[in-house]
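Q: Start with the shorter request: fold the first protein.
A: Done. Sequence, then structure:
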Amino acid sequence: MTHTEFCRRDRFVEIKKFRLMLLDVNCYLINFKNNSFLIDPGSEFKKIKKYIFENNIKLKFIINTHGHYDHMGAVPELIKEFDIPFYIHEKEEGIITDPKKNLSSTFYSNGLSLKTYNLIKGDFNKDFLISGMDVMNFPGHTPGSILMKIEDCLFTGDVLFKDSIGRTDLPDGNNKDMNDSLRKIKLFDRKLKIFPGHGPESTIGDEIENNYFLKSLNY
């Protein structure tokens, strides 16, 4: 069952987290500088829609950390309902259009191939769509996995979890790329708060100290 797990305000960022039924994906509804948008709406379109309508939220766009089905299952319906753009990294195009690679064919026979999307290009996009929102390509789990930094909040998708990391044995995953990405993450400000694609929140400092996968890597 979908539920709003928390609502919090970190300085100028309001974060509402939904833990969705399909594989317990964390979907985040963000309000930053009067811009409201969704990160990784993986399932349960009707309940997300209901919350948005009941709270009179003016949704401006959707952005995904990567293209696996458990993170994008509700995207087509949300695009249609709210007439808003959807953004994902250009290196994910081959995943979001291929039901086998995005794993949707494992959940239902027809699978999902996205037709409507906008591609994010490059390794680093400063002030992407909103001043103060940075988007960074951190490959490994998938080639186009992104991290989003807003103020002191870091949305890590399936790259980094509390005490763990994302898998690299799925289509287009790459262990070397993941290790390179984790080395870069270890250089981030330790005070950054982590909001992952699955599981509870953490900080960069806590993960450097306690996450085996980060501790085992040399710079």
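Q: Next, the second protein, separately.
A: Sequence, then structure:
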Amino acid sequence: MHELLRWYFERVLEWGYPGVFLMMALESTIVPIPSEVVMPPAAYWAAQGKLSMAGVILAGGLGSTFGSALCYGFTYTVGRAFVQRYGRYLFLSADKLALAEAWLQDFALTGVFFARLLPVVRHLIGFPAGLVRVPFGWFLGITFVGSTLWCGVLAAFGASTIGARPDLLSDPDALTQVLKHDLLWFVALAAGLAVAAFGVKAYGKRRAAAS
């Protein structure tokens, strides 16, 4: 995987928008590719005028949505028993699936949006969405909005970070560490908003039950 990422780094300008789409689609499935090393180099070249920033962000959002749709379709068709029995061979452990499913049950469609902004559940949310038969149209729309927002944040930070340290273009591991540190505030904000949304929903349920 490390060599694949380095290969992508070396060819990101050559691959252009289809490369961003493909890598973000893979990132949104079971393939362990961090989005922090996919969007930033493309955004850097966009900042240099080699690509369009809007095009890079759109390609990333569409790719993420496509990858999540594949996960949704997979569990929608094969069902829970198959995933529980063979998921470990697909990097989808029972613990990870349970985490994503609990998240979806707590937040419903709102959880799909917030999932695209947070680690771990970001690339897993499509699996439980397919299992519990979330309406596919709503799932696609919300996934696209959340994914595109995340890609925009990565693009902005990536272009700025690599612009200040061009050496990171040759070191995907270092870029990942730097961006994860720089994006801690955004992840914390997204998590806080998710907790607030859950609190409001739980309060509403209690009020409804009391009524």
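Q: Describe the second briefly.
A: Residues 2-210 form one domain. The chain has eight helices and no strands.
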